[in-house]
Amino acid sequence: MKKNSFMKGNLFFAFFCFFGIISGNAQELLTVEDAVKIALENNYEIKIASNDLKIDKQNVSLANAGIMPSLNGVLTENSSILDTKQTQQDGSIRELDGAKNMNLSYGVALNWTIFDGFRMFARYDQLKELEKLGDAELKLSIFTKVSDVISTYYDLVQQKQQLQALDTAIVISNLRVTTADNRYKIGKASKLEVLNAQVDINTDTTNLLRQKELFANTKILLNELLARDVNTQFDIIAEISIDESLLLPELITLAEKQNPQLQTQIINKRVTELQLKQVKSTRLPIVSISSGYNFTRSESSLGFARQSNGQGLTYGINASVPIFNGGLQNRNERIAKIQVENSKILVEQQTQMLRSQLASAYQTYLTNLQLTKLEAKNEEIARENLDITLAKYKIGTIAPLEFREAQLNYVNAKVRNSNAQYEAKVSEINLKELAGNLPLASF
């Protein structure tokens, strides 16, 4: 009982020192949900992809597809000053130097292509597919960045756990130095034992400082991903929770419906099919109508009509039928068909690649789950071994080297357990990212 109380007191002291060093003065606690929320609001890549999607949405319009008519105001004026000589039918001649002539026309003009072989409708459908493509690219950008944020966050959690382990090692090393010094003073130990204990505590301190440096740099990296001041101070949770309920068949089904990269290829296939439809439409006639309301005025210094005015409606219809263009139509259709075939191949390739990635990632996930249980058990064994070794060391029935070995085994076991939990969490994140199923709403 006394032994366990002593160990618990030292561990409590270690944790107290750790949180005093890392947390500082009541730093903000940043949860993984908060981190994802900030990233979704601030991350530069997500902002750019979001703006690109807004552009795609603006492009989806009947006018941009060529379906709507155009209405324009028109104005034309031509003037001249000429030395003019006219011979009349009766043979008489009329001459005027500097004769002024003016023609003025203004009004509104309507032009409307009412049939172009259904190309305009295929173009409109293509614009809607491009909007879907922009949405899929935005989701891909979001999933990628959210995955980076979550992985980096849990990397910090892992490092915090390792800092705790190293800090505990220093507390134990301090105890060893004190015990060795006391034993030396009463003549039960040599000076060498004290020096070795001091060397080991210096080694442990060096490892702790290196780990603190890595922890601080990873904090900077996370702040960069959140697109905020890289020197923003925050604290994090100290535990890693792992979803152990993932099943490969369910992940494959979700991925085939939701994976942004696969959806991008499927949409690209639809875009190429609509492009082929547009190319084929050029075989058909193009019909357009024009209309307008015009005002005209003309003046002439010489001639039978010195001035003329007019106003009224104008209208007309235009039609053209392609007959021969040197075989370019057949060439364009063949190329468009090949592009459609390539897009189908890319969909099949992406599907196969996705299934392979899921199968490989799932196997890694299962292995890491097993390792978390194994390393947790190893940590318990190492802790028990350290407790026994510490008790023996205090009464002098075990060599300092054996105690140091037990101490290092305990620290290494805690580090391996932390690493195993982190790797399992990363495997879970990778699987959910591939399945297009990162729970953004809950994060």
Throw out a few tags for this protein.
four-stranded antiparallel beta sheet, disordered N terminus, alpha+beta, 443 residues
Characterise this structure.
By secondary structure, the chain is α+β, with helices and mostly antiparallel strands. The chain has one domain: Outer membrane efflux proteins (OEP). Helix content is 65%, strand content 16%. The chain has ten helices and four strands, in the order H-H-H-H-E-E-H-H-H-H-E-E-H-H. It has helices at 2-23, 32-42, 44-59, 62-65, 119-185, 191-225, 248-258, 260-281, 328-394, 400-434, and strands spanning 70-87, 93-115, 286-300, 307-320. Strands 1-2-3-4 form a four-stranded antiparallel sheet, with no helix packed on it. Strand 1 and strand 2 (93-115) form a beta hairpin. Helix 5 packs antiparallel against helix 6 (191-225) and helix 8 runs antiparallel to helix 9 (328-394). The longest helix is centred in the middle third of the chain and has 67 residues, at 119-185. The two termini are 44 Å apart.
